[in-house]
Amino acid sequence: MPDVTVLYEDAHLVIAIKPAGVLSEDSDSGASMPALLRQRYAALGQNDYIATVHRLDRIVGGVMVFSRRREVTGKLTEAVREHRVTKEYLAVLRGHPAESEATLTDLLFRDAAHNKSYVVRRMRKGVREATLDYREIGRTEDLSLVRVRLHTGRTHQIRVQFSSRGLPLLGDIRYGSKDPNCSAALWSYHLAFTHPVTGKAVDVTCPPPAAYPWTLFDGVTELHTR
What we know:
By secondary structure, the protein is an alpha+beta fold. The protein has a domain at about 85-190: Pseudouridine synthase (2-Layer Sandwich), CATH 3.30.2350. It is built from 4 helices and 11 strands. Strands 1, 2, 3, 4, 5, 6, 7, 8, 9, 10 and 11 form an 11-stranded mixed sheet that branches. A hairpin with a 6-residue loop joins strand 10 and strand 11 (about 200-205). The relative contact order is 0.17.
């Protein structure tokens, strides 16, 4: 199983980097972050309780927080549900947005049978509102690097909201952008929240890996993840 990189930890929670391709929650279908973290703590002779409190798509990498105590799990889950956890991402889009920064609000329908979401025009069963803010922070001739803050956490939200505007994430085959050198270019780089036990501010940032396509924007990603 892959090694796990821990960015912050205490007796109550742990923040670590989820590699792309690793599952966010326990499953029999592949390596998962809870399993990796349990292995780590078991090897250290520590409590190995780990619970997932929010999710990243399997193909997406970056910063995640996990609970290390049963009594903390509900508090973290509630903070995520009530949008008291700041979640920011970096994404590489194929194309250039019409506005350098904007708020995107859509109605999303999730087709669970096909594991795909769609922007729809009206509210009905299975439809939920999705909102995010973005700001363009770099571009090449064909691509744009955007910083995204989520205000809701819908399935594939960032991927489908940009794709519906003709700006699919580079390498995101499911939503219209094939690239042989990468999967969906999306990275969870920033989490911030109030610690559910100590009440102190927790603020963790991690830049994307030094690999394609992030290296097309060398200097920009580091500047915006300090």
